[in-house]
What does this fold into?
Amino acid sequence: MSTAEQDSSAADTSPQPPCHGRISPARRPTRDDQTRVQVFSAWPPGVLCPGLDVPCAVDVHAALRNIDVYTELTAERGWSPDRVERWWCGALTRELLN
It folds into this structure.
């Protein structure tokens, strides 16, 4: 590791928010994304985790709550649909809400 890399890593030891940086402007939002933006934008300030903005919240929601995750957990890992729903509820609460 170079001296510059050591200096920069030592300078900022605070955890970065999950979406440190901006979403690519080339990304085209889906209809589901647009709905999530409307829902998350309607929440009062302070509901989302510190450092988490609406576009990032939409990405976190989409990453966790998708058919591939559901299929992996039910078909490949043997989870029941109810267990997946309970896990999603806890994971999304932890990741999104302050």
